[in-house]
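Here is an idea for our session: we take a single protein and study its fold together. Which protein we use is up to you, so please pick one and set it down. Once you have written the record down, we can walk along the chain together:
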Amino acid sequence: MANKKYGTEKETLNTVVGKGTVLEGCFEVHEGIRVDGILKGQLTASGALVVGSSGEVKADSIRVKDAVIAGRLEGKLEASHQVKLESSAVLVGDITAQVLIVEEGATFRGVCNAGESTEMDQPAWNRDEEAVEVK
């Protein structure tokens, strides 16, 4: 088990994909996961995802609390809190997070939706407003 402080809370990384290891499938991790090898498929974690400089994640869907990327990630990344792209990071795909930190030198190709949700982000039918008829 590896413990390290990410963000403002102490996160536990209880799953490690070591360098030289290749895992493929649908993964659900109770706390955090560190990837120094290759992980393919889908990933859901209640804690942090840490992709080391030698790590690669290729996933259609990645849902985590926080993410720190130093290696390569391809896919759709959804973090309920924060995503940090370190200077060696390569991310190809889409990011959704409250906070996005991109260090100089990081590569990001995709679409980003970062920041607090606002009422304007929601479709009109989800807001507490009366419908207005347009003629």
